[in-house]
Amino acid sequence: MTDKIRVVMLGTPDFAVPTLKALMNAPTVEVVLVITQPDRPVGRKRQLTPSPIKQAAIEYGLPLLQPEKVSAADFVERLETYRPDVMVTAAYGQILSNRLLAVPRYGCLNVHASLLPRWRGAAPIHRAILAGDSETGVTIMKTVKELDAGPILGMQAVAIESSDTTGDLHDRLAEVGADLLVRLLPEYTAGRLVPSEQPEAGVTYAHRIVRKDEWIDLTNTVVQVHNHVRGLSPWPGAALLHGGQPIKLWRTALLPENSANDSLPEGSSGTVCMTNDGSVRLKCEDGWLEILEVQPSGKRKMSARDWFRGLRIDKTQFEPVEENG
């Protein structure tokens, strides 16, 4: 194929922006249209705000459409006029109909933030960290009607460090996915790359994060609580109760095995104390976890040290939250 690959890009959040930029910089690609969600109200003032991909499309001067329902018959007819070779989706946020998927000559490719078939679904980055996975990655696949079940063009693994938050991993995976897509796309449209079906074994689902997922289980181990905190940072935040009010834990750290806890009093799970050197520690089922950053209800984020010193007590207790699930 000597002509440039005509691409329609569908995306909405920050994760999609590196993919659009990579497509714009690829010499073999022409982005003929960007599709994103309609502007949504954001913040306390509920001000209509454009998506990150819309802002990027405007910067590039690209044609832009924001349908309420991308699979509506009249919109599919409009899309056909752009004569796309390929549609590319990256965290777009709507279900695509079979009629829509049939519009581009080579179908629709999706940039998915996991090593499929593990973590199909809406929140693969959150779920990988919450589960304590040591590795994840990006998969480029053909989009089919079944959720994230299409044949795979290629994958690239990415290590998950013990200190990685969802925000850290999100940014790395977005860049890896963009690079992988533009490397595979010309091979695919030229017929040199044949997608392979996903294996049936190993399928897991990354269900959307909901309110009950925020609450930390005080009967969990140090590693589980640490994974919970970093898995929900920077959104929506892992929470506990203190004095009947929610408090978010934004950053924690695992302690070295030889870390001294001699200066800490005895306590049950949920006990919070400060060491002689000013380190704030939370008692979990099997040991102590260092708390670095918190956010009490109605206040800004602050260091755990400043929060604890403001209590003016030797120790305090987080409360169980089972009733809040």
UniProtKB/TrEMBL annotation:
It holds the Pfam family Formyl_trans_N. Residues 6-184 form the Formyl transferase N-terminal domain. InterPro entries: Fmt, Formyl_trans_C, Formyl_transf_N, Formyl_transf_N_sf, Formyl_transferase-like_C_sf, GART_AS, Met-tRNA-FMT_C, Met-tRNA-FMT_N. The keyword Protein biosynthesis applies. Residues 209-311 form the Formyl transferase C-terminal domain. Keywords: Protein biosynthesis, Transferase. It catalyses: L-methionyl-tRNA(fMet) + (6R)-10-formyltetrahydrofolate = N-formyl-L-methionyl-tRNA(fMet) + (6S)-5,6,7,8-tetrahydrofolate + H(+). It comes from the Bacteria. (6S)-5,6,7,8-tetrahydrofolate binds at S114, L115, L116, P117. Gene3D superfamilies: 3.40.50.12230. One of its GO terms (cellular component) is cytosol. The keyword Transferase applies. One of its GO terms (molecular function) is methionyl-tRNA formyltransferase activity. Its EC number is 2.1.2.9. HAMAP family: Formyl_trans. Attaches a formyl group to the free amino group of methionyl-tRNA(fMet). The formyl group appears to play a dual role in the initiator identity of N-formylmethionyl-tRNA by promoting its recognition by IF2 and preventing the misappropriation of this tRNA by the elongation apparatus. Belongs to the Fmt family. This is Methionyl-tRNA formyltransferase. It comes from Alicyclobacillus ferrooxydans. The gene is fmt.
